[in-house]
Amino acid sequence: MKSTPPPPVSSSSVAATRWLAVGSLVGLIVLGLAWEMWLAPLRPGGSWLALKVLPLVVPLAGLMKNRMYTYRWVSLMIWLYFTEGVVRAWSDALPTGRVLAGIEILLCLALFVACALHVRLRLRNAHATQAAQAAALPETSIP
């Protein structure tokens, strides 16, 4: 007995998760720079901590090119920034810093969910396509 493949997911759902991932990643880059340079820097006039956004720039090209591998490793890397947000939300003396840390946490969660859903939807589509191709092949019997 063959199991029926899951129905293919609409390409608009895949595109929505892609743009949510790209948007939240760009949001994290902008937030990190603004936070450390102008909004609530550790030292007046900005700090070198703004360089923390450099690792976030690396996967941007892979997400824009829709590379599955990039979605997978970004969903793991983002937990470092999530942890920073939690620590700074808990320990920052300035209320502005705590609010920015909360925004960082939300952007990290949005990026993780978008990456996880994107990978899941694309894999489901790939399995549905393979099942449809297998069903279209004529059955051959060996005498």
List the helices and strands and how they pair.
Blueprint: H1 11-39, H2 54-64, H3 68-91, H4 95-136
Give a description of the structure.
It is a single chain. The chain is mainly α and 143 residues long. It is 74% helix and 0% strand. Helix 1 (11-39) runs antiparallel to helix 2 (54-64), helix 1 (11-39) runs antiparallel to helix 4 and helix 3 packs antiparallel against helix 4. The model has no long low-confidence stretch (mean pLDDT 89).
Range of helix content: over 70%
Strand content: under 5%
First-to-last CA distance = 22 Å
Q: What is the count of DSSP helices, taking H or I runs of 4+ residues?
A: 4
Mean pLDDT: 89
Number of beta-strand segments: 0
Overall form:
elongated
Order of helices and strands: HHHH
Distinctive features:
single chain; 143 residues; mainly alpha; 4 helices
The gist of it:
The protein is mostly helical and 143 residues long. It has four helices and no strands.
